[in-house]
Structures are given as structure tokens and as C-alpha cells.
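User: Please fill in residues for this 81-position structure.
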């Protein structure tokens, strides 16, 4: 007969109580801030999450300013630069 006086250590995760509202949404896309998305993506990369490969060929839309900064960063971080 199991001992019912022992505390339970397993918990069911049901997600956040309320999801943050996206800036813009339609059926196929959601617009969120870079500040919200990047920490999660960086953590997934550092943790080598396999689900990232499901999205590696997906397109993303970024502002021209961010594109220019990323392009300059890519150029200057090259070992030959």
C-alpha cells in the first residue's frame, strides 16, 4: 500500500498564467520585440535545442537599422578584418 503522507515533488507545468500580447498578429505571423525574442533564441542555441533546426530555413523580418548593425558586426568580427 503506497504511503500517502509523503509530499509530492512533481508539478505539472501549464505555461505562463497569461501570455504577453504580441505587437501584431495574424494567422501565420506574430510580431514581438527583439528584446523578448533574442534571450530565448540565445538560450536555445546555448542549450543546443534540436527544435531550432526546424526553423533554420525560415525567413525573419528585421528593421533596416538592425540589419545594418548586424552586417557591420559580421564584417568586423571576421578574423581577416
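Assistant: Residues filled in for all 81 positions:
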Amino acid at each position: 500500500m503506497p504511503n500517502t503522507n509523503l509530499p509530492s515533488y512533481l508539478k505539472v507545468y501549464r505555461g505562463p498564467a497569461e501570455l504577453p500580447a504580441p505587437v501584431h498578429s495574424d494567422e501565420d505571423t506574430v510580431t514581438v520585440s527583439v528584446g523578448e525574442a533574442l534571450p530565448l533564441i540565445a538560450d536555445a542555441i546555448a542549450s543546443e535545442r534540436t527544435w531550432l533546426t526546424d526553423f533554420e530555413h525560415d525567413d525573419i523580418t528585421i528593421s533596416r537599422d538592425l540589419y545594418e548593425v548586424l552586417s557591420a558586426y559580421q564584417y568586423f568580427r571576421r578574423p581577416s578584418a
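For context: The chain is about 30% helix and 5% strand.
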